[in-house]
Amino acid sequence: MEAFRFTVTHQDSQTKARTGLLETPHGTVQTPVFMPVGTLGSIKGLSQELLEQLGIELLLANTYHLHLRPGEQVIRELGGLHRFISWPRSILTDSGGYQLFSLSELREVREEGVQFRSHLDGSAHFLSPEKAVEIQLALGSDILMVLDECIEFPAGLVRAEKAMERTLLWAGRSLQAWQQQPQCDAEHPTGALFAIVQGGIYPELRRQCAVRLVEMNFPGYAMGGLSVGEARPLTYDLVAAAEEVLPKDKPRYVMGVGLPEELPHYVAQGVDMMDCVLPTRNGRNGCLFTSQGKLHIRQVRFARDPRPVDESCGCPVCRRYSRAYLRHLFVSDEMLGKILNSYHNLFFYLDMMRRIRQTIAAGEFSGFLSENHLSVAGEVS
């Protein structure tokens, strides 16, 4: 794994927060990092030039969706996912486990893998742990994820334990398939494979799953099946249960989180990587994140408001456009409004992560955790 390395650079003295450098075949990622979600190989509404302008170093794409359309063989023939989407920096691909979980009426989970029907045309497909790795290798991902079984909330102990055991079985098969690939091809280096901790809402199952995955010695570890309906304090407890036994020298990734006010809490628990659709999804729906809380730009009170979305934000949207204009674009259903809203929200998330890294490095993270993030949790008055 010469093309993949993780180094912790700073450690907070009062929490488990840390900064690090995650080296991949397509560049170095500063952690803690927030990954924008580009499910189909694009961040909705934002060009790659804008993503580079935002300083994004690692983005997420989805195996399930790219397998169905345009297909991994098409992408491989066109030079891999980086060349296909014209993105020179690092890419993480999810295995598709969560997407299959959300298609409960179209799939059947078996020990061998998941039989499912495409949500696009109803065609039959089968995804095994080995196939998920094969697809991601064809895509040329920098970080690959094992196929896991994500379960519904709430789920009983027996159901959660069964899904955990299947996730562990699949993790072993994924690792074996990945290890059979040449790891150090100079032109096409194989990306790193991350395991996924499951266990439902049961901390002890989460801890057991993490222990057994660590014994398999993956390059990195993720925590999945969170933020599916459980109360946030429970989410933090589940993360803590797994983190206690995960290696200190390898990256930890919490999948599918979260709101801006939650991000510092995950970092304080020793989390290095996070992703979520909220910045762009909320932006397209007119919800803007600010240092004073959420702002719903459709509200009539902004129709004559000359102020920027967030007077303390330095993004190009806040430097140039008024709330009145952004509201006009939104209620007129102008595409530009969705683009500007999404850009601002992503800038807000990424700027928060930059400030988190800076405060950890300066030994000031605890103050940031207790003071600065609290104001973003409410609504703009």
Summarize the structure in words.
- This protein has 381 residues and is of the alpha/beta class.
- It folds into 2 domains: 5-276, TIM Barrel (Alpha-Beta Barrel), CATH 3.20.20.105; 283-377, no CATH class.
- 40% of the residues lie in helices and 19% in strands.
- It has an 8-stranded parallel beta sheet with strand order 4-14-13-12-11-10-6-5. Strands 1-2-3 form a 3-stranded antiparallel beta sheet. A 3-stranded antiparallel beta sheet has the order 7-8-9.
- The longest helix is centred in the last third of the chain and has 27 residues, at 335-361.
- The model has no long low-confidence stretch (mean pLDDT 95).
By CATH's scheme, which homologous superfamily of the largest domain applies? Queuine tRNA-ribosyltransferase-like
How much of the sequence is in beta strands?
Answer: 15-25%
Return the CATH topology of the largest domain: TIM Barrel
Q: Into which percent range does the helicity of residues fall?
A: 25-40%
How many β-strand stretches? Answer: 16
Count of all domains:
2
